[in-house]
Amino acid sequence: MKIRNQARRRALIRAAAAGALSLTLAFGGAFGGVALAGPADDITLGIQAPGPSSAGTGASQTGASGPAGSGQAQQGGQGTAATDLSFYNQTLTDPIVRPVDGYSYDQMLADLTLLAARYPGQISLQVIGQSLDGRDIYDVIVGNPSASKKVLIQGAIHAREYIVIPLIMQQIEYLLAGQQGGGTYQGRPLSELLSQVAIHFVPVTNPDGVTLSQMGESGIRSPQLRQIIQTAYVLDTAEGRTQLGYDEYLRRWKANARGVDLNYNFDAEWNAINPALIHASSNGFRGTSPLSEPESQALASLVTQNAFSAVVSYHAMGRVLYWDTQDNLKAAESYEMAQGVAAATGYSILGSKGRGGLKDWAQKTQGIPSVTIEVGQSMCPVAFSEYPAIWDQNKAVAAYLASYVLSH
Ligand SMILES: [Zn+2]
């Protein structure tokens, strides 16, 4: 299977290099948006912080002045006649990343190959692990790879939240284009900022789950994994955990290909997470032990091998930010970072304390400030009609995080 996968990837890369991939233009449709406001996706185990609102966690946090320029930067150029050189507002004449509904893992691979070819020396790709169904998990480094300040931005650890993949890919492309083309951030050359920081992007942490949610069971190659998925459906149905038909059940899948919820698989109060759920499921099963899964292991290794100053996870949905966990070693820093992300995105800050996620583990065991960003407002998978708004709200986030870690 490994060999077949390698061959498949090489073929894909050849196809991409030859320009043989046909890409659908993204922004053709109406952007009406389906406004189905509902509870955020990832708060099921949240414990509401005592006190009024999420901000009520202490004077030292609420009193912290906003991170430099987080508000002004996003309005960059407003009120002046000067041309807006903010890198994220520049028009790319021939963009490589073209967001489409169901932008896939394979599309990501093809686009990464093209980005590496167009921006040599500005981007580096490394494989940090392999999923159960044999897909490589990529770490994409933009900026100065040997900089002492490092940021990690990861996404799609939950399968059905794949709308974050084109978002992260566009963040990468705009940084590269802005760095090359004289773009600015907060009035300063972006290239100057990127020379001092390494931004690591993991656009897809759970490639099997994403493919399952997008393509159904045929997206999974291993017969054993397909069997596990079918059994999960039988058990979830029998126990009343789902009443959906099989196709819709798969479309709303969050876990990896053997039914482990990867964002409950980290060692952060892991024992307390859904202890009664002891089998594979579309969501909510913590696994047989912390870091039992290759996908969570890959992320954990990346974090322990790099001294990240910030770890940020993209999820969907709710247009909210989570910044806390029990025994958070970096509560003040995480909250301050959340304030900056809130200023950039317009999202609300929530105080629930997460468990078992990358953020929670980074905060309480690695001592790294961390924030989870939940994009979109319609039920997952988030309607693609929301994508232009999601991009607009998040286009400055990576640069903000880079400037945040440089000032701390
Ligand atoms: Zn999620």
Describe the structure.
Residues about 1-80 have low confidence and may be disordered. This protein has a domain at about 40-210 and about 295-405: 3-Layer(aba) Sandwich (Aminopeptidase). The chain has about 400 residues and is of the alpha/beta class. It has helices at about 1-15, 60, 70-75, 105-120, 165-180, 190-195, 205-215, 225-240, 245-250, 295-305, 330-345, 360-365, 385-395, 395-405; strands at about 125-130, 135-145, 150-155, 185, 190, 195-200, 310-315, 320-325, 350-355, 370-375. α4 runs parallel beside α5 (about 165-180). It is about 35% helix and about 15% strand. The longest helix has 18 residues, at about 165-180. It is globular, with a radius of gyration of 20 Å. The strands form two sheets. An eight-stranded mixed sheet has the order 1-2-6-3-7-10-8-9, with helices on both faces. The site of zinc ion has 6 residues, from loops.
What key attributes describe this structure?
two-stranded antiparallel ribbon, Aminopeptidase, 36% helix, 408 residues, binds zinc ion
Q: What is the structure about, briefly put?
A:
The chain is of the alpha/beta class. The protein has helices at residues 2-17, 59-62, 70-74, 105-118, 164-181, 190-194, 207-215, 223-238, 246-251, 294-305, 331-345, 358-365, 387-394, 397-406; strands at residues 123-130, 136-143, 149-155, 184-185, 188-189, 197-202, 310-316, 320-325, 348-354, 370-375. The strands form two sheets. The chain has an eight-stranded mixed β-sheet with strand order 1-2-6-3-7-10-8-9, sandwiched between helices. Strands 4-5 form a two-stranded antiparallel ribbon.
